[in-house]
Write a structure and sequence with these properties.
Layout lengths: L20 H10 L3 H13 L3 H11 L20 H14 L5 H21 L11
Length: about 130
């Protein structure tokens, strides 16, 4: 039997918030034991077990994925301002104020802003101000 286009074979599907059986079983097995297991891992970490120590550090002090950076971005009003901003970005990276990956992310931001200006105000690309 063929299904109609756009019609699921199981229109009700899995209800929202339903959890995987394996997850539910694991939670039931650990219920009431989490505190004892945590205490055991902490004690092993204190005793020098590197695996236990890594588990503790991953849970209690996870590595930061992103952070706010202190960088004075020059004002961006025109596409030509992007050149000034990128020069400031390169200087901050050379001085060690920004990491290369932080500078790369800021570059993407500046580039995106300049491209947006080019799309929205194409006739104003070479003007100093479009206001």
């Amino acid at each position: 039997m063929l299904f109609e286009k756009g019609q699921s074979g199981n229109p009700l599907g899995r209800p929202p918030g339903a959890r995987n059986r394996a997850t539910v079983m694991a939670e039931e097995l650990l219920q009431g034991e989490a505190e004892a297991i945590t205490r055991t891992v902490i004690e092993k970490a204190k005793a020098g077990d590197m695996t236990a120590l890594r588990i503790c550090l991953d849970r209690f002090a996870p590595p930061r994925k992103e952070r706010a950076i202190a960088f004075n971005l020059p004002p961006l009003a025109t596409t030509s301002d992007a050149l000034t901003a990128i020069a400031a970005l390169a200087a901050a990276t050379a001085e060690g104020d920004l990491t290369p990956s932080e500078a790369g992310e800021m570059f993407k931001l500046i580039e995106g802003y300049a491209r947006t200006l080019e799309v929205v105000y194409p006739a104003c690309i070479f003007r100093k101000s479009w206001l």
